[in-house]
Amino acid sequence: MMDMLEESLDYRLLNDFQRNFPLCPAPFAELAARLGVAEGSVLRMLEQLRREGKISRVGAVFAPKRIGASTLAAMAVPPENLVRVAEAINRFPEVNHNCERAHRYNLWFVVIAGSEGRLQAALGAIEQASGYPLLKLPMEQEYPADPESSLERMGDEAQLQAYPFSPPTPLGELERRLLMALQEGLPLFIRPFQVLASRVGCDEIEILERIGRWCEEGIIKRFGVVVRHHEPGYQANAMLVQDIPDARVGEFGARLAREPGVTLCYQRQRVLPDWPYNLFCMIHGQARDEVEKKIAELRTRLNFDDYPHDVLFSFAR
Predict the structure, then answer these.
(1) With contact defined as beta carbons under 8 Å apart, do 241 and 277 qualify?
(2) Fewer CB within 10 A of the terminal residue: the chain, N end or C end?
(3) In this structure, what CATH number is given to the domain that contains residue 277?
(4) For residues 292 and 242, is the Cβ–Cβ distance under 8 A?
(5) How many Å apart are CA 205 and CA 220, to the nearest integer?
(6) pTM of the prediction?
(7) Number of domains in the chain
(8) 212-259 pLDDT, tens per residue?
(9) From CA 126, how far away is CA 46, in angstroms rounded?
């Protein structure tokens, strides 16, 4: 009976609370009341899911190009140095995701900072700490499918949305500190926003009001449990990159984002001659061969066969 209860709690936390997370002083108590369990059970299960790699954190997913500055970055690291370099990069609070991919460029991560100047400073510090040059791949356009709001929708047709891009919102010092604190996720404590407030240097109510405002303004796309989709049933995770003529990349990106199983789709800058690809998307499946077949079918059906591409399978670090 207890195993069944834990399995149900595991599933509901993964499936039901990727959005609409309670923004209140005691959010885990509110989750527990909705689920009909003790607050301690919710906290223990979230910690277990985090240790198992099924979730990366509980917290904010920021809309790209809406606040501060960010870029995708890649590094070619000798395999014998990969663990050391990944650990060094993970120490930077600006880094909010870091994974290994099967490619010459084998270490990939996202860097977010409060301003373009701070971003460039962070990238320079990362290069110095790692001892290897970075491939910087800032985003130019997003074609968001966003099927991640429910595990049950992973295979459903995604609804294409349009995010009108405007100049990023400038950040004051308090907002910059909050952005940095949120990249690490909510502390799994009874009063997590109070802990964040002490780190940022303001009142708990200020933290809640600012996060709520960012959600209303679309700066935060969603706030809740951030699931690693390749873990709970989707073991294969591949980044498909393609070299599409600039005049057609918008058309092809929009079509690709509508496809079931495509969870992210972006146009990014090329870095010639090392990196000719400008259209990126993530594709998930239960096994590597399934993902490979899905990519081959997609490229044929959407008439991508004439354009160079590469497929980079990932391993979380």
Answers:
(1) yes
(2) N
(3) 3.30.70.920
(4) no
(5) 18
(6) 0.69
(7) 1
(8) 999 998 889 899 998 765 444 456 789 999 999 999 999 999 999 988
(9) 30
